[in-house]
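Readers of this paper often ask what the protein records in our data store actually look like. Such a record has a labelled line for the sequence and another for the backbone structure tokens. Nothing more is needed to write down the fold, since each code stands for a local backbone conformation. The record that follows is passed on verbatim for readers who wish to inspect the format.
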Amino acid sequence: MAEPLRHEMDVEVRYAETDQMAVVHHAQYVVWFELARTHLCALSGLSYADIERMGWLLMVTAVEVRYRKSARYGETPRVACWIERLGSRGLRFAYEVRRDGELLVSGATEHVWIARSTGKPCLTPEPLREPFRRLAGG
């Protein structure tokens, strides 16, 4: 199996994302994870909005964040995202936030596929299996 596709993007730290010490608030990293994840999903050939219009949702079932160092106002850290595990009903995305190559934060989110029509978990939708397999390096 090939390496998973790794999407990387720069995120400029905005003042509204920081606390009184100009340090990025801990919850903001999860927002950056989501931003990188939606950009990665778009590399499958379908935006996340397209996937929702097709009738499926990716429900978050777990979030892990490990903080090592802080990002600060005025910096532009790089957020990386890739699929760490692809299952029959869900997947796990992994993340790293780096500044000048130095690891600041790492994490992961776990998701299950939900059929919008029923609101219940389902197998990976047939039209999405191959695009997400490619993202995962398969």
Remarks:
- The CA atoms of residues 88 and 123 lie 6 Å apart.
- The longest strand covers residues 102-115.
- The beta strands are 7-10, 56-67, 78-86, 90-99, 102-115, 120-121.
- The radius of gyration is 16 Å.
